[in-house]
Each structure stands twice: as C-alpha cells, then as structure tokens.
Write a structure and sequence with these properties.
240 residues, 2 strands
C-alpha cells in the first residue's frame, strides 16, 4: 500500500468488494460515459443530427479508459471532465463532435454522485434484508429459551433470547424503512446546462417543448423517475 498517500479505513478496511467497486474510478468514469451516451441518445431522439454509428462507437468504449492519457491531458487543461471528454474523443473519433454536447461539467459529476449513492443504498438495503432474515430465524429458533431480563441495568424478570432478538430486529426494520424512503426520493440532476437555465439546449433545439423533455428522457435511461426541478450548475458548456 502507498504510504505517502491518504487512505481512509472506509475504503481500505471496512467495505465489501461490491461497495468498493461502486466508488472506484472505473465505476465513476464509466458512469460519466453512460451519461454521455444517454445525452447523445436523447439529443438524437429529439432531432439533433447524431448517427447510430456515433452512438455505437460511444457504447463500445464505455469501459475502455486510458487513465494515462487522461492524467496527461488534465495536467495541461486543469479540468477533469474535459480531460475525460478528450480521451473519450480519441477512442470515438466519429462521436467526438457530439460528446458532452450542450452539457455542463455537473451533468456528469453531479448525476454520477446521485447514481453511485443510489447504487450504494441498494447494496446496503440488500445486505440489510439478508441480516433481517437471519435474525428472524434466530429469534424464532430461540423464542422459548429463557434468559434473565434487566431494567436500569439491574436483574429483573425473565424473558427469552428470542424476544430480546426481536428488539434488535425491530431496529433493523426501522432502518430498512428509512433506507427505502431515501431510495424512493432519490432524484437525478438531469441536464440543465450552464447556470441551470438550459439556454445551451435552446440554442441547439430552438424548441422549448423539446428542451423540456431532455431531463425526463435522460432520467429514464439512467433508471430514475424523478429529477430536480431547478439547479445551479457550473460554467462550462459545449455548444456545437
């Protein structure tokens, strides 16, 4: 392990392999590319001149990331998203003109954060349900096994191991309810352009009704049914 670089126990000691992968560079930056594909597909559906060949080229290179090229480009341009746009463009010369078209950097960074948080929530939920199932079986198995109960840290009346386990089970069920509530309220940022006004898309489409469809179409492609109504994003937008 590198001893001159900060390492958190949240990544190095405690998480499962599945959780570590969700927050890995490969997961993060391939999600950026999935979002670029979803944007290009949406723009094609709404009338922008994008070919199926360009889309297929992008789809074929979602997981094909040359981090050395990205690092070299970022050292030159001092911008992580543009470094990845550049590297993706090298892999996809046909699609290069339409990668990130009309979008701002937060389109990939913020949407990816939401997507990865949602995936992490689903993983925690999945594992929590397994624990609840095991604890239910434990409580059932020992429902008649007597043990001493306590009150105010003093010995009190008898209870059972199974009943005591139901107290732990109740807490976990409440945790599950909270997880499901949060999961059901996760929203994608959508694609709102510089400063969140979608002006760049008005310049591309010159059609307000088409611009209104962008967020919903991208959200659906990425597995979401809700988006934030408004946002304040950053200051880079690519307009052809």
């Amino acid at each position: 392990m590198e001893k001159n670089t900060y390492c958190t126990p949240l990544a190095g000691r405690y998480p499962s392999k599945e959780m570590n992968y969700i927050w890995s560079d490969n997961s993060k930056y391939s999600t950026w590319r999935k979002l670029w594909v979803a944007l290009a597909e949406t723009e094609k559906e709404l009338g922008i001149d994008i070919t199926e060949e360009q889309l297929n080229e992008m789809r074929a290179h979602i997981f094909d990331i040359d981090y050395d090229v990205v690092a070299k480009r970022e050292a030159e341009c001092r911008h992580d998203v543009m470094a990845h746009v550049y590297e993706f463009g090298l892999k996809c010369p046909l699609a290069k003109p339409i990668i990130h078209l009309g979008a701002t950097s937060c389109y990939v960074t913020d949407n990816t954060d939401v997507i990865l948080m949602t995936e992490a929530l689903k993983l925690v939920k999945k594992k929590l349900i397994v624990v609840i199932g095991h604890l239910k079986n434990f409580a059932e198995k020992y429902k008649s096994t007597t043990c001493l109960g306590y009150t105010h840290f003093q010995p009190a009346q008898l209870t059972t191991v199974g009943k005591r386990a139901t107290l732990w089970l109740q807490d976990l069920l409440e945790d599950l309810e909270e997880l499901e509530f949060v999961e059901s309220h996760m929203k994608l940022l959508g694609c709102k352009g510089t400063t969140g006004t979608q002006e760049s898309f008005m310049k591309l489409f010159k059609d307000e009704e088409k611009v209104k469809q962008i967020d919903g179409k991208i959200a659906e492609k990425m597995g979401f049914d809700k988006v934030f109504a408004v946002s304040r994003t950053n200051v880079y937008t690519k307009i052809r």
